[in-house]
Amino acid sequence: MENYKCKSVGIVGSGIQGVCTGLQLIKKGIPVTIFDRQDPLSSEYKPASYGNAGHFSPYAVLQFNRPDILVDVPKMLFSSYGPLALKWNYIPKMFNWFLYYLKNCNKKSMLHTAKYMHQILSLSNDAYEEIFQEINVDGLVEKKGIIYVWTNKNLKSRKLEIKVRNDLGVKQKLLTREEILELEPNLNPVFDAGVIFENAMHARDPHGILKEIFKLYLKRGGKFIQSDITSIEQKTANETIIKSANDVYIFEKSVVASGAFSKKLTDQLGENIPLDTERGYHVHFKGKDKLISRPVIFLDRGFGMTPMNQGLRAVGTVELGGLKNPLSKKRIEYIINCAKELLPQLEKHDDEWLGFRPTLPDFLPILGPSLKNKNIIYAFGHQHLGWTLGAITGKIISGLVAGEKTNLDLAPYSSKRFN
Ligand SMILES: Cc1cc2nc3c(=O)[nH]c(=O)nc-3n(C[C@H](O)[C@H](O)[C@H](O)COP(=O)(O)OP(=O)(O)OC[C@H]3O[C@@H](n4cnc5c(N)ncnc54)[C@H](O)[C@@H]3O)c2cc1C
């Protein structure tokens, strides 16, 4: 393996996973072509990597496969006005996902997910810093930490989160209501306490950062083809085939980095991976980004606000409803009302956006080769943390493609766990 050099790679998806992987491969001298339906440099480009909350969250080890959350799920689902919503027409299609979710909603699985999210999250900021050395991020990244606030209603859950983070050595500083207001004096004090993650950063424009990384990729010789990919297969030991309606492309290796849309391709590869989507929303309050200095997340409401170049981005909620249902006005209203609860001075909003988090039922991503097609590598399923994990995913996947050794334990991210 020492002198192995892959001859060519095709990547399906120009979200943050695809672009960071493409950049790392090009830096290793491997020719790469990225495919996407949308050009990352165009104004039509609006995937999850465009509209997320922009948090670089290396602290966010605990996911939603938690027994304490499971207890609240039915109550949340039957309330039309809460942080979790369901498109009822989609329930039959999510049945398999729910079964896996229930299986993974226990203390042991919760801690397993936390441990292996921590393994990659703890490397995530450094991986971005390396990229930031090579692109211009002036006005695009801020390092002021991220604040979470909460009321005293779910203290048992808050204590659990604090303990798991402490046990894993995650840096956190608990705040009283008064301390939060010292940092963010415009907030309406409807919360009781909170925490700040001082080493967290935020993007003032996730799409702006992605475009800079993509431009660097192109400058280094990476290719891009705007195309809707219909199939992917491994033809021979050294040939993978990526097809669109009219064209056929051959590469030695291929990477599936198609976010929540990856299942359409992995199903063709004979693997029944239970990938689904947690739909999320955002709106902008233009010119209101100065009201807070850093992202503020209201945990009880499952929503947050990030000061961005487009304005104050109010973002969040989880809606289970697949990729085809239209945007829900009720979810948009919910986010707007939550934002106004924390900042009553907000008025008119713009830019209603729906995005698709790619989520597996154990809340770990899939990073590694397809079980039956070793030259097709998976890089999807990063759920709420795909923005944070983009740069480190690029390093891991490019290393796998190039056949490099790693000190990381990558077994827990294999698709084997669902087969
Ligand atoms: C509301 C919301 C808030 C979020 N906030 C944060 C946050 O603050 N921090 C964080 O870390 N994460 C956050 N996330 C999660 C994060 O945005 C995603 O996990 C991440 O962007 C996924 O990146 P990706 O590259 O896997 O997928 P995507 O960004 O979805 O990109 C996939 C790309 O593949 C293309 N594609 C798919 N199928 C095909 C095909 N067949 N042919 C051609 N092209 C194809 C799509 O067009 C798309 O451009 C948030 C997500 C949402 C929805």
Notes on the structure:
By secondary structure, this protein is of the alpha/beta class. The protein folds into two domains: 9-49 and 208-273 and 363-418, 3-Layer(bba) Sandwich (FAD/NAD(P)-binding domain); 57-202 and 275-359, 2-Layer Sandwich (D-Amino Acid Oxidase, Chain A, domain 2), CATH 3.30.9. 30% of the residues lie in helices and 26% in strands. The protein has twelve helices and 21 strands. It starts with 8 loop residues before the first strand and ends in an 18-residue tail after the last helix. The model has no long low-confidence stretch (mean pLDDT 96). It binds flavin-adenine dinucleotide. Residues 12-18, 35-38, 47-49, 52-55, 57, 228-229, 257-261, 280-282, 315-316, 355, 357-358, 380, 382-388 line the site of flavin-adenine dinucleotide (FAD).
Instruction: Tell me the distance between the termini.
Output: 28 Å
What's the count of strands?
A: 21
Whole-number radius of gyration? 21 Å
Q: How much β-strand is present in the residues?
A: 25-35%
Q: Name the overall outline.
A: globular
CATH superfamily of the largest domain, by name, is D-Amino Acid Oxidase, subunit A, domain 2
CATH topology of the largest domain: D-Amino Acid Oxidase, Chain A, domain 2
Name the bound molecules: flavin-adenine dinucleotide
Helices and strands: which structural class? alpha/beta
Named CATH architecture of the largest domain: 2-Layer Sandwich
Q: Report the major sheet.
A: 9 strands, mixed
Low-confidence stretches: none
How many domains comprise the coordinates?
Answer: 2
How confident is the prediction overall: mean pLDDT?
Answer: 96
Note the quaternary state here.
Answer: single chain
